[in-house]
């Protein structure tokens, strides 16, 4: 596949993943009467069940394509990118608000891109600095306006804990993005979709352990309608964000260099904001529009930098 075709297909896959992942930020709001532990356990139990059902017809062949090292890696990736990340994120959204969580987790592209710039044959970090600056300013402007609105009248200690949880989500998902990209590069014989399903099976197994304290230790009582909404939302997020979103993300991770993969996470922030506006039934403010424009401009700048690299290398080789 040509380099420009890989760049385009990888970017579209990253955008699709971001569109599906953005829905995750609404889940704690829709089912806010359930704890972050319950939200995390239910989503990933559903993810595991759906992934196993899709893999069962090909289980013998797919499981035989991975060894002990890959299974160990899947455990770590499931913890970092799913269980731990979502537990931190759900707690952050409920305690610090969507804006603060989006602001902090929105720094994932910067962290991943900086790490990716240290790999061999990567686009130099100095070339990517303008796109990173646009991303930082864009996310910063969103937080500047939204934090004051959400923090008014809130418990400062609860908000502080929520902010720490958001940073936990930031570091957990950054580590997942880096290590998952490296494992996909090694496993050319396993498709990006199958790697996502295998991750789902392992995540579901881990979620069984998580479900014990989440559901067996009591807590607030809920009516039948609340439980129906809870499991409906959990299954929808598992299918959309985990099965489809993770599959698209793995596709993008295989097609794009890590420095470009980091920028794709910005689409999760953009779509999370869009869904937030729809949920709140309002138009974005002027500052929020400027922020979104800066985020998109940063991605386009980064894509342009990567698009020039293959052509420059081709001329040098000639």
What is shown here, in short?
With 318 residues, the chain is mainly α. It has helices at residues 3-21, 27-30, 36-55, 59-64, 68-96, 98-105, 108-116, 125-151, 156-186, 192-215, 224-255, 258-264, 266-280, 286-317. It contains 14 helices and no strands.
The major sheet is characterized as: none
Helix-strand pattern, N to C?
A: HHHHHHHHHHHHHH
The percent range for strand residues is under 5%
End-to-end span in angstroms?
20 Å
- Chain-averaged pLDDT: 82
Oligomer: single chain
Query: Count of DSSP helices?
Result: 14
| SS content category | mainly alpha
Number of strands: 0
Shape by Cα distribution: globular
Q: Unreliable segments (pLDDT under 50, ≥5 consecutive)? A: 310-318
Number of domains: 1
Q: What is the radius of gyration?
A: 20 Å
Helix content: over 70%
Write the layout of secondary structure elements.
Layout lengths: L2 H19 L5 H4 L5 H20 L3 H6 L3 H29 L1 H8 L2 H9 L8 H27 L4 H31 L5 H24 L8 H32 L2 H7 L1 H15 L5 H32 L1
Helix pairs in contact: 1-11, 1-13, 1-14, 3-5, 3-10, 3-11, 5-6, 5-9, 5-10, 6-8, 6-9, 6-13, 7-8, 7-9, 7-12, 8-14, 10-11, 12-14
């Amino acid at each position: 596949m040509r380099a420009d075709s890989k760049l385009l297909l990888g970017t579209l896959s990253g955008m699709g993943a971001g569109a599906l992942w953005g829905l995750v930020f609404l889940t704690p709001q829709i089912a806010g009467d359930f704890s972050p532990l319950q939200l995390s356990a239910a989503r990933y139990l559903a993810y595991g069940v759906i992934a196993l059902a899709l893999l069962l017809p090909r289980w013998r062949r797919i499981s035989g394509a991975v060894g002990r090292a890959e299974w160990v890696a899947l455990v770590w990736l499931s913890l970092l990118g799913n269980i731990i990340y979502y537990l931190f994120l759900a707690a952050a959204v409920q305690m610090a608000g969507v804006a603060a969580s989006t602001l902090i987790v929105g720094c994932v592209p910067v962290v991943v891109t900086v790490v990716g710039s240290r790999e061999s044959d990567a686009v130099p970090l100095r070339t990517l600095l303008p796109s990173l600056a646009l991303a930082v300013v864009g996310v910063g402007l969103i937080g500047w306006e939204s934090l004051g609105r959400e923090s008014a009248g809130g418990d400062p200690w609860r908000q502080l804990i929520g902010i720490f949880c958001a940073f936990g989500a930031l570091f957990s998902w950054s580590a997942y993005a880096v290590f998952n990209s490296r494992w996909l590069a090694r496993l050319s014989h396993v498709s990006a979709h199958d790697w996502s399903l295998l991750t789902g099976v392992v995540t579901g197994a881990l979620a069984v352990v998580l479900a014990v304290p989440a559901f067996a230790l009591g807590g607030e009582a809920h009516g039948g309608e609340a439980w129906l909404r809870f499991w409906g939302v959990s299954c929808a997020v598992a299918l959309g964000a985990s099965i489809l979103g993770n599959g698209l993300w793995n596709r993008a991770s295989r097609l794009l260099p890590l420095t470009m993969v980091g920028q794709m996470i910005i689409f999760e922030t953009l779509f999370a904001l869009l869904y937030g506006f729809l949920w709140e039934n309002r138009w974005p403010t002027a500052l929020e529009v400027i922020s979104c424009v800066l985020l998109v401009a940063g991605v386009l700048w980064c894509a342009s930098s990567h698009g020039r690299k293959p052509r420059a290398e081709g001329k040098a080789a000639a």
